[in-house]
Amino acid sequence: MTKITTSSKFSEVSGAILNLNGVVTIKDIVDAILQINNFQQDTLDSIKKKNSMELYGTYQYAFHEYLDNLKVDMTYQRRVRLRQLLNKLTDGKGFNSHGAGAIDVAMRGKDAFVWDGLRRSILAGITGCDYIPVFRYTHNRLDSPTAMQQKEAKFFKMRNADTETMKPEEIFKSKVVYNDPMAIRILDVIKDANLDVEGLNSGYTVMHGFRELENKLFSKVQSDEVVRASKIIRSVFSKENVVSSYLLIGLALLLQKNDELDGPLTDSEIESQLTTWVNADADRTQSTLTKKRLNGKPSESIAWTISQRAVNFNGQQEDLITKLKLQPDDTEILEDM
């Protein structure tokens, strides 16, 4: 396989590992880490090297697997944050084989894929192990590669999301791989909106705060409104290179209520006014419109803020407030924030 990176700079190696996608070998990840400048003296010299024979006894296929043979499918795995991983290594004074236990691998034919234990595999490799204990699951040889991937993704979600804290984005990513119907619906909207979450639509603008979209899409706002809002935000705030999910949903809700007005503005008019507002002050960012949020009414709060600060609805603001179902007490609190 092609090397993950030829760089020896920590920041570039860390970035390359963070953005891994598709099938990668454990060896390639370990090799990339070991080529970092001063990694040996700054990290490895302070911890005890490991020897698989001493830790686990003689290699036996039924119980062990060579690290050089292990692959990982990053399509459903959590991203690897190298600094966090190395902190665990140094804080624990090295690789703890007893705490690590056996990793879980799925056999796709003769290929062993780590579906749980990626980080433990990497730590074992960079501290000198050449094989580690494994529990093997063997796929049905008649299953397609996609079916095998989906089954592993479901195992991964059951093992991790259902038993420990995972970011909503990470859970969503694994659901997409095993074809959860709602996850696929949400992903279709994300793609239509030219946004990216966890590398699932790589190359497009990254959206921050996935949970807000997950909670509000198809209930409070609809897909076309989100797509329209995304287009406006990406144009108006093009210098930020990210889209806030709070602003996305708040603006989508505002577009929805605007469409219900007797004299609605066009999307182009809203975008033009927002652009003028942003350009008038270099300190105005997406967070300027999202920081005022009422508990239980974040989207309504953001829609109100846009209508009060950035976009003139030609005397229809009060009608908008009514449609947003904001009470006088709500708007008084927002004005005082």
Tell me what you see in this structure.
The structure is a single chain. The protein has 337 residues and is an alpha/beta fold. It has two domains: 10-165, no CATH class; 181-336, no CATH class. It is 50% helix and 12% strand. It has 18 helices and nine strands. The protein has helices at 10-18, 26-34, 39-42, 52-56, 82-91, 97-100, 118-126, 145-160, 168-177, 181-192, 210-216, 223-236, 245-259, 267-279, 286-290, 298-309, 317-323, 328-336; strands spanning 23-25, 64-66, 70-73, 103-108, 111-116, 131-138, 195-196, 205-208, 242-244. It has a six-stranded mixed sheet with strand order 1-3-5-4-6-2. Strands 7-8-9 form a three-stranded parallel sheet. It is elongated and about 80 Å long. The mean pLDDT is 92.
User: Structural class, from secondary structure content?
Assistant: alpha/beta
Strand order, main sheet: write it out: 1-3-5-4-6-2
Strand/helix succession = HEHHHEEHHEEHEHHHEEHHEHHHHHH
First-residue to last-residue Cα separation: 55 Å
Count of DSSP H/I helices: 18
What Rg, in angstroms, do the CA atoms define? 25 Å
Largest sheet: 6 strands, mixed
Q: Give the overall pLDDT as a whole number.
A: 92
Determine the fraction of residues in helical runs and give it as a percent range. 40-55%
